[in-house]
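Technical annex B. To support the medicinal chemistry partners, we prepared a structural model of the target in complex with flavin-adenine dinucleotide, based solely on the information shown next.
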Amino acid sequence: MGESTRQYDFDYIVVGSGFGGSVSALRLSEKGYRVAVMEMGRRWTPDNLPKTSWSLNRWFWRPSLALRGFFSMRYFRHVTILHGCAVGGGSITYACTMLRPPDKVWDNGSWKGLADWKAEMPQHYDTASRMLGVVENRILGPADKLLQRVSNDLGIGNTFYRTSVAILQSPEGMPGGTTVPDPYFGGEGPERTTCKGCGGCMMGCRHGAKNTLDLNYLYLAEKRGAKIFAETRVVDVRALGGVADGSAGYEVHTVNSLARFNRNARCFTCRGVVISASSLGTMELLFNLKDKGSLPAVSKQLGRYVRTNSESLIGVRVPRSPDDLSKGVAIGSGVYIDEHTHIEAVRYPDKSDTMGMLATILTGGRPGPGRVALWLKNLMVSLALHPFRTVRILQPLKWARESVILLCMQALDGHIDMKWERHLYWPFRKFLVSRGRRVPTFIPAANEFAQKFASVAGGTAMSMLPEILFDVPGTAHCLGGCVIAGSPDEGVIDHRNRVFGYSNMYVCDGSVVAANLGVNPSLTITALAERAMSYIPLASEAKWDDVAKVR
Ligand SMILES: Cc1cc2nc3c(=O)[nH]c(=O)nc-3n(C[C@H](O)[C@H](O)[C@H](O)COP(=O)(O)OP(=O)(O)OC[C@H]3O[C@@H](n4cnc5c(N)ncnc54)[C@H](O)[C@@H]3O)c2cc1C
Ligand code: SF4
């Protein structure tokens, strides 16, 4: 019989409700634990999701500016990080592309050799794929067909693939919009509606077709008694009763994440903690707690090996395109332009044109002032030769229906580090800051591909303005910072996601990933969390003595 934990408010508190957090909440509840999930974002339903990205206050997350949406952008010297913030974490805003990385990722990084990953992981990928309802995309929109045409023209048509997506889709060629009883969990899940191919996945699916975490893992966890505290930000985690390693449990302090005053500070006690606040959120929380003495033993490797999947966002705009390029699913297809580099066709739904304000004429050149000068020159030449067309492609209206975003990812290794430091211009508190070698802001082969795409589509190739002006690439796939390793000298957690130096404390989210995946990471984050949770005993057998093993 497990030790009683009745004197604690909960057995486990999970911080964050994204992929890692949702898996943890369900699996721990299934094992008989009393679970609470603290999530700083809001709960979203088809009724309160924004209709377009012009509803900034319901799309963007920046509560201090009264923006209470589910999508956030954070700016660092080396990278701009795009991430989600909601009940369901990044799944509310993500494009639901679910790809397995190649086996070679287990041979790189600090997790290498710590487990027989290639033998163990397939079963967890299978479970993750089943839970998230992953299928091969059956809806190819005009943008996907263009991608296929261009890849055929370039002689790489054999690498064209339909993405695997976490979406409920009708059989190919059948219309979407049909509501059906729970198709995934034998009737235990909610009723669902098939995909309409509206391209709106990144604005939140308003049709109930995208398999967001609130419709699978979290839905089932709540049915098993897990309690989700939305709009609740964790600000402190301390070991209880003066037992420094946390073996006597933890107190978790929270505040209301939306309130500016009267923040409703609360404290909950628990026996174990799972930190699942995403790569960025977990680094920020743990750095703060280490620095202020709440969790001083967290490894000094915190913040090391942060990876960005080596991404570059480029695109093509086709003024007066005969086809509505916003139709399809957000990422419907992809193509490999060489062994290490692949490109996906991405879209926003019709009328969600705000991202168009960041697009400009495609510019190559070396990063820095030279590239800015080249961009200005290109712009002037284009304005002189084609004034109407240039103005037409630079203004944002109709951008979504006339544009294909080309998301280029490379599986080459490279990383930056995050530190917890004071800014020169605001020395009163510490912030996360990025350090290390710069991440490349453009990938020449991808630029060439965009130009070819533009000529086939009759459009103009585009770059992202911040990449040119500030030499800072953007990524929606920030990973690492709290990586799996053999000892606290190399990483923050062991191969079963246990935090070095603490008892019954785990990290389950993108921060644990120890190699560049080269593909969209959510399926891997889910599978790794499934694996970590599979080692936790049933509540009736819990001894509460789980500590990280040093190899
Ligand atoms: C626009 C966009 C499109 C994307 N498309 C894809 C895609 O197609 N495929 C793919 O694989 N990936 C995609 N991603 C990336 C994907 O969303 C992330 O990799 C994934 O969500 C990370 O999962 P996670 O478990 O690490 O944390 P998240 O899903 O980010 O969840 C972490 C949660 O913790 C909460 N949190 C943070 N700090 C605290 C705190 N102190 N207290 C309480 N709560 C806290 C956050 O609000 C958040 O909800 C996309 C991302 C974006 C932004
Ligand atoms: S394409 Fe539209 S209907 Fe289909 S999952 Fe995305 S948002 Fe939902």
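Notes passed to the chemistry partners:
The radius of gyration is 23 Å.
The first helix runs from residue 19 to 30.
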